Amino acid sequence: MLQTLRWSAGRVVSALITLLGVSILIFAAVRLMPGGYEDIILGPLASPEERAALAAAYGLDQPIIIQYFAWIGQILTGDLGVSFVTQSPVVEELAKRIPVTALLTVMALFVTLVIGIPLGIWTGVRSGAKQGGAMGRIASGFGISVPEFVLGSIVIFVFSRLSLGIQVGGFSNIGSGFGPTFQALLLPALVLSVFCVAAAARTTRDAVMSVLVEPHITAAVARGETPWHIVRHHVIRNAGIPILTLLATVTAYLLGGAVIVETIFNIPGLGSFMVTGLDRRDFAVVQAAVLFAATVFIVVSLVLDLITSALDPRVAVTGKAGS
Predict the structure, then answer these.
(1) 1, 56, 140, 174: which could join 198 in a potential S-S bond, CB 3.0 to 4.6 Å?
(2) CB-based contact 273:101 (threshold 8 Å)
């Protein structure tokens, strides 16, 4: 028990250190982008005095270390700064867009869980069968190989040309009702989930296949247990830890993939907002949006690690799941 608590505390400290490192990387990457805010706003014909005055107005003339610690100090007080472009607090801007991206991500994650994992279990159990195993490998390979912008463009073309009963574009604010918002996000969520479904199916399939060759499975077969009883009581539980690890990766992928999907489908979410901020060198917006996405990923990874250690205490002892 004490060792588990010590391991959990170590994971929390590791997550905080990772978050600190990510914040430094984000801040440095944004500042190293070619072309500053004053270049975008004032254009190439502005005088050096005008550029210097604008940079001083936003504190961009300060040394980068001072700017970083000032930013961290603001974050610790709950202030993410002010958008250079809209002159609105970044917190208010994010509050409008995070629910949209969150709903899109949850929908894609739901599709991943209800299709990807059962498909992986089915193909893993049927790995010895010619038809089931081959179909699973082909489907997962196709889903992993096709980029979102290609798949999204095909979906927009097909559903715009043909009356298939699903709306393309025309996003409605979440406050206008769940039905129209759900319909507007359905196709983007399906496009976003294709890679995750394929990755989940492939990972689950490999995890199931690795468990099926374990001695306790052979013993269960010798006891006369039915195949699906073995799957429910022996395979899924032992294959669960790699699947939980995958979910952390999938969450990060969904947040990153939302940038492309929101741009293609013209959805006013966090991803498209961040792309607009990059174009306009709106540092406060980009830093806050990327830091939020990184924080979500780190927190999800930490929670899944703690769940994994609870499911298999050997993780806290050996640092890895036992077989």
Answers:
(1) 140
(2) no
| pLDDT of 75 | 86
DSSP 136-202: HHHHHHHHHHS-HHHHHHHHHHHHHHS--S---S----GGG-HHHHHHHHHHHHHHHHHHHHHHHHH
Number of helices followed by number of strands (H, E) in the chain:
15, 0
Return the DSSP state at 89: B
Give the pair of three-digit tokens for residue 187. 């196709």
Tokens of 320: 């890895």
CA distances from 171 to 15, 41, 217 (A): 36, 29, 50
The pLDDT assigned to 323 comes to 41
3-class secondary-structure state, position 37: helix
Query: Could you tell me if 308 and 300 are in contact, meaning their C-beta atoms sit under 8 angstroms apart?
Result: no
What is the pLDDT, as a whole number, of residue 45? 72
User: What CA–CA distance (Å, rounded) separates 255 from 147?
Assistant: 15
If you count them, how many residues does the chain have?
323
Residues near 105 by beta carbon (within 8 Å), at least 6 away in sequence: 192, 251, 254, 255, 258
At 165-220, the pLDDT tens digits run: 777 766 766 666 777 778 888 888 898 888 888 888 888 888 888 887 788 778 88
Q: Given its phi and psi angles, is residue 64 left (phi above 0), alpha (psi -120 to 50 degrees) or beta?
A: alpha
Q: Which residue pairs, CB below 8 angstroms and at least 24 apart, start in 276-281?
A: 277/83, 277/85, 278/33, 280/37, 280/40, 280/84, 280/85, 281/33, 281/35, 281/36, 281/37, 281/39, 281/40, 281/84
Query: What are 207's two structure tokens?
Result: 């995890």
Q: For residues 124 and 118, what is the distance between their CA atoms, to the nearest angstrom?
A: 10
Encoding tokens for residue 74? 């603001």
